[in-house]
Structures are given as structure tokens and as C-alpha cells.
């Protein structure tokens, strides 16, 4: 009787552990090493797998199709880089406002999803070389008659939480924050949610990456009802984010990106998603 009870308790404990891991969405065991001296490359080069964190609603950089498949510019680019090393890339959707936390905790190995390089982020993580230039635009409905940031006075603005645009609003309040209603934007988990509110006139302006705005609006049936207003916020560079001190991984990614720029593969990816080489510093440097 006692043996049976012990066996039952053991089985129950194992089931609880399995259910707990499944319920928590555990997909990956942290392998970051120390915060001061991580060596992600050593591990991923042996395991032949690396985990990229992304906002899976950020078109066209990385997003889910209706069938649930994750596709996008950064998806193709990451795969092309790590194909050179025989490493498979796993894409892990994350809460974008927690991207740096997820990286530092070891839940993911990289942030690769239209990730703007800026001083605030550079204090916490290491970036690859920049591979794409972006800027912020204000998207509005034409029936709101907003033609400049000055027209947002007393209006409601939206932005994605944790985005470069959100940081710009806080860092340079005179450009937009001081003008809008309540002097605070509405924060959204995803740009998809923000566009829903923009269409419903719950917000009158949405500060967003021009790359996202251009692709999203181009694929909307009511594209002509929107307008994109250039901003005075500084241009941004997209880079791959990794843990501080991950010097070998950075070198491998930088080398892989530059090889793609020289052998024409980056041009092919640019043409597939943008129809142009856009502002691609790697290709400019390769010429």
C-alpha cells in the first residue's frame, strides 16, 4: 500500500511539472551564461539552433499569416545569415514592451524585428551593424484634416508600447507630446490594435515606423482614406539586438550580413519585400 502511494505521488508530481511547463509556454532553456560575459555563439553553434524574439504583427518585418506561419523581411534575413553557419532559426513571438527583458533573461537569443538602434537601448544591449534605415511618420485619416504635427493639438495620438516612436515622443516632447490631448499618447501592445482604433476614430493620429505604415496601408482596401505625415524625429537605423558582451555572436552576424550585401542575396530580399533597395547601408557600403 505504501509503495503504491509513493508511486502515485511520483506520477502526480511528474504530471504537475509537465503541465506547469506547458502552461507557462516554456519553449527554450536559458543559455545566456553570465550577464557580464555571455557566450551565446558557443552554444548555438553546437546546438545548431538560435531563438529570435519578435512582435509577430509587425508587417512586413515579421508577422503571422492567416495560417499561423511567421514570415517577413527580417525572417528571411535572419535565416539567410544563419544558413551560412548551418544554424536553424526559431522565431518566438514576445511581448514587445518586454523585448530587452526577454533577451537578458535568456528566453530568446536575439531581438530581430525592425529593432531601432538608439542610446537608451544601447546602454542595455549590444547591436549588430545597421542594415536598414527607417523614420517615424504620423498616420491619420484624411477626414481628420491633419496635415502637420501642429494639427494634433488637443487630439488623441497612439503609439506602440516599447517602440522607438514611444521613446521619441518622450525624448522630444515639444514635437508631439506637448500638443496632444492629456500630453500622453495611448499605448498599444501592437500596431494592429492601434489601426483598429484609428479606423474607428478613437485616435486621430498614430506614430509609427514608415516601413510598417507603407506596407500596411498598401495592403488596405481603403488605402486612399489615410495619409502619412513626415515627422521631425531623427531617422533611425534597424539592427539586431543581443546581450551585452556577446562579441562573437555580433561578429558572426555582422560578417553574415555583409556577405549577403556583397553576394546579392540582400538585394533579392529587399526586392521581395520592398520592391527596392530602400535605404540599405550595407549595400551602399558594399559598392
UniProtKB/TrEMBL annotation:
It holds the Pfam family SBP_bac_3. Gene3D superfamilies: Periplasmic binding protein-like II. GO terms for cellular component: membrane. Residues 49-277 form the Solute-binding protein family 3/N-terminal domain. PROSITE patterns: PROKAR_LIPOPROTEIN. It comes from the Bacteria. GO terms for molecular function: ligand-gated monoatomic ion channel activity. Keywords: Signal. The keyword S-adenosyl-L-methionine does not apply. SMART domains: PBPb, PBPe. Residues 49-276 form the Ionotropic glutamate receptor C-terminal domain. PANTHER family: ABC TRANSPORTER EXTRACELLULAR-BINDING PROTEIN YCKB-RELATED (PTHR35936:SF34), MEMBRANE-BOUND LYTIC MUREIN TRANSGLYCOSYLASE F (PTHR35936). This is ABC-type amino acid transport. It comes from Lentilactobacillus buchneri subsp. silagei CD034. The lineage of its organism: Bacteria, Bacillati, Bacillota, Bacilli, Lactobacillales.
Amino acid at each position: 500500500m505504501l509503495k503504491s502511494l509513493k508511486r502515485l505521488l511520483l506520477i502526480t508530481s511528474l504530471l504537475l511539472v509537465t503541465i506547469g511547463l506547458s502552461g507557462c509556454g516554456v519553449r527554450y532553456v536559458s543559455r545566456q551564461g553570465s550577464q557580464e560575459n555571455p557566450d551565446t555563439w558557443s552554444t548555438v553553434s553546437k546546438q545548431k539552433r538560435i531563438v529570435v524574439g519578435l512582435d509577430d504583427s509587425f508587417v512586413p518585418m515579421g508577422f503571422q499569416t492567416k495560417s499561423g506561419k511567421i514570415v517577413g523581411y527580417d525572417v528571411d534575413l535572419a535565416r539567410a545569415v544563419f544558413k551560412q553557419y548551418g544554424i536553424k532559426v526559431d522565431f518566438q513571438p514576445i511581448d514587445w514592451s518586454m523585448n530587452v527583458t526577454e533577451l537578458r533573461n535568456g528566453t530568446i537569443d536575439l531581438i530581430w524585428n525592425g529593432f531601432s538602434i538608439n542610446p537608451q537601448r544601447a546602454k542595455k544591449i549590444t547591436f549588430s551593424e545597421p542594415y536598414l534605415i527607417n523614420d517615424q511618420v504620423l498616420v491619420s485619416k484624411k477626414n481628420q484634416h491633419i496635415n502637420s504635427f501642429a494639427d494634433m493639438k488637443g487630439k488623441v495620438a497612439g503609439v506602440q508600447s516599447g517602440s522607438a516612436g514611444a521613446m521619441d515622443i518622450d525624448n522630444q516632447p515639444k514635437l508631439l507630446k506637448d500638443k496632444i490631448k492629456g500630453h500622453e499618447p495611448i499605448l498599444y501592445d501592437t500596431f494592429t490594435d492601434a489601426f483598429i482604433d484609428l479606423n474607428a476614430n478613437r485616435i486621430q493620429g498614430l506614430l509609427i515606423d514608415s516601413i510598417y505604415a507603407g506596407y500596411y496601408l498598401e495592403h488596405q482596401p481603403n488605402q486612399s482614406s489615410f495619409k502619412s505625415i513626415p515627422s521631425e524625429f531623427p531617422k533611425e537605423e534597424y539592427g539586431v539586438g543581443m546581450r551585452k558582451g556577446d562579441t562573437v555572436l555580433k561578429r558572426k552576424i555582422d560578417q553574415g550580413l555583409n556577405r549577403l550585401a556583397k553576394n546579392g542575396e540582400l538585394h533579392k530580399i529587399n526586392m521581395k519585400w520592398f520592391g527596392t533597395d530602400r535605404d540599405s547601408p550595407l549595400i551602399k557600403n558594399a559598392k
